[in-house]
Amino acid sequence: MPAYYYAGKLSPRHQADAFLSQANPVSGTLYGVGALATALSNVSIKSAVARVTWTVQPTPLEIVIVVDGDTITHAFPNPVSATSYGIADSIAFSFAAPAAQNLIAAHTAATIPIVYEGQSVQVFARTTGGTVQLLECRVRYKRLLPI
User: Fold this and answer.
1) Domains and CATH numbers, the chain
2) How many other C-beta atoms lie within 10 A of the C-beta of residue 50?
3) What's the pLDDT score for residue 86?
């Protein structure tokens, strides 16, 4: 746990899911996910999933997370239309550098209780190429807030 957690003045509080539903997204454009589109303080991300609905396959589908100024990109190269893909931050899933993490099947991503946490956190979703009708992303998170 980060040092600020033990200050005794903050309490973890579950937040409503941050959600993005972008019709006809522009290829390569980063779209902010709900309340996490702008940097929020003292955030712990519990899970994040994304999906695209398409008629011509895009590549890749990405969830981009900025934690305390560091950018971590999770990507799936050839997403199946209307299938959810989630993040995982575990050595068991990938030895890749932070800029090249993989998205995995959403049902296995939920096995990790806290994926990322930081004093400043933002989340974006992006897809590149193809013909996409809908880009969606949902992030479950909590914040440490004053008691």
Assistant:
1) 3-146 (2.60.120)
2) 28
3) 87
